[in-house]
Amino acid sequence: MQGAFGDATVRLRGFRQENIAVLINGMPVNDMEWGGVYWSNWAGLSDVASAMQVQRGLGSAKLPIPSVGGTINVVTKSTELTQGGKISATVGNDGYLKTVLNYNTGVSDSGHAFSAVFGRSAGDGYVEGTEFEGYTYFLGYGFRKPDGKHNLQFIVTGAPQIHGQRTKSYFNMATLADYQKYGIKYNYNYGLRNGEGFSMRNNYYHKPIASLNWEWKINNRVSVSTTSYASLGRGGGSGDLGRMGTYFSSSRFRNPTNGYVMWDEITRGQSGGVANLSNGRTFSTPLDPTTSLYIVGDEYGPRDLTRNGVIQRNSINSHNWFGFISNVKAELNDKLTLDIGFDSRFYKGLHYRSLRDALGADGYRDFGYADYPGGKLAYKTYKWDMSQVWNVFGDTDEEEKIDRNNNGIIDYFGVYFQLEYASDDVSVFLQGSGSSKGYDREEFYLYKTGDPLQYADKVNLTGGTIKGGANWNIDAKSNIFANAGFFSKQPNLGAVFQNYDQIATPKDELFNEKIVGLEFGYGFRSSNLDFNINLYQTTWTDRFLFENVTINGERGEANFSGVKQVHTGIEFDGVWDMSPFVSLKGALTLGDYAYSGNVTDDAVTTNQSNVSIGSATLYLDDAKVGDTAHTTAYLDLVIRPSDKFMFNVDFFHAADLYGSVNAEDFDEPGVTNMEMPSYNLFGAGASYRFPLGEDQVYLRLNINNLFDEEYYQESANNYLATDSTTNYKGINVRNRVIPGWGRTWNLGLTYRF
Q: Which region holds residue 493: left if phi is over 0, alpha if psi is between -120 and 50, else beta?
């Protein structure tokens, strides 16, 4: 949790969300360049979902998507929704307000069904400078023939949003000492400008998807499911660009009393005045001799023209994405089923930067743009307000671009099969897949128009999976199962084109990531008790890891290959119906997630440059995987005194949390992860249902972190706490950390008709 709208993350078995396959109605939505998912782009899916399927580990997901941690599939089918609708409003802490309108026609006698949802969320945000506004829309049409042979689903869904951020960017994070001094709502990139709040970091995006799914039951044994989809994603995020003698992250640009960025001083210094900085120094941008304007320069330019100012830039990461999936399912006999299918995708990512706010200056001069050897002047600003975010068809070709301008192109084709045997007592499956992934890159910033190097040579890599598993129903109550699998996963685009020179990594240095997964489990079902116990181990080798490093005072980009991780653990989940009125749900994870071996990059390059500044080594052997709790426990006690009223109390425990692995700390042998203290969180809620004629009204109250526990979830550093360091809650205060939220609440009223 970064502290802003939609900036949540998901972990499965210690793996981050870029290693978890996320699907909507079977459509992959993980970014095709780096694999991640921004949940703010999918806000409101829960309002239209007919099912949420979470599969940890290997399982038997049919698509050739080699997810390492597991798979999440959100299902939205208009023909599976009953007739009716809802109107809901939810209020919460820090000005939170969410409204939703929803209506489903249900399936008519002729087989038609319509669904529509529209919602809006807005608020000030728990953290300073994280105001947000977001919308959700969903339009669905379904047709199901009365004979059941055809089922057609067409949907259009999206969630345009704008929100301020508390970033996890390493050089733009507050330390624990900062949070001690200024409170856990502190935002390192926030301050006042002309008396109003202003933050350097913002996110804005709209990623609508349109899809058409056709299910055709040819006969009693053979069926075909086909999905075509398209997505036009538009937006990005803002941040700083340039230097004022040093980087914007320096404390000299912050008020020591409240920690706010001194935006008024920065603006004054860049518009002809004198900025008085917190360290006693002054700063003033001189008039540009060629324009007689206040022009700030580019940090990558000649030294006498650099470090004379900072701007707020947009980093645009838009995309055009098209896909087609088809699956044939054949019941060979009463016990044997064969699935055969393919998955085809095309993706083009559009990446550039533009001027968002000159912060008092008249413009920005970019010395890195190849087509402008004397420097490209940019004057026009692009604010990316909600009207721009809504318009995914806007033409960006005429925008003034600075600092970067490139496209990443991915095409993908995979085929797969699954053979499954199922009887009353035993089920066995075998699954295999093969895929080809094409990588291409277009660079319009570092090479002049007409230079053949603007267009890289395409690279194609193949991969595949083989998985198998079995389940034995021992009796009516118990079952055991085992799964095993091997993935050969093509690397992300950044591993193929590591630098900016358009030269792909040589094939003898470019390896597929290899994942071996094993799991074994036991399940128990009875009239009042259900539980599962799983044992698992996932070994992940030949990973690619990108890290920012500093060598002799100069920042650079290191690309490490050959990283190895081993994740081992035991999981428990269960539900105990203690009485007709009381139930207890629980889950427990005991994990050990660690790196194995060290890795080196012999040619670290500077930003936007192909010049090596030296070699860097990550000493990872035996280091723990950070950013996730290795031990978690959850309990939820639900009491229903009547069919109209219920309340619950829940408990969450997290332990074995470690600092993130980064090149700044793990640059010499013997470095170990710092361990953050465990924490316990309690929550409570209550709901009441009462009839209104033939309709129903629901009232729901939730309180999170009931006792306002102060805790810290992640650390970007690994400064150990010793007797000679300043510590707080067992953490060295020099560490850059992410605090969890304090007590929050929301109250919702829903009318269902």
A: alpha
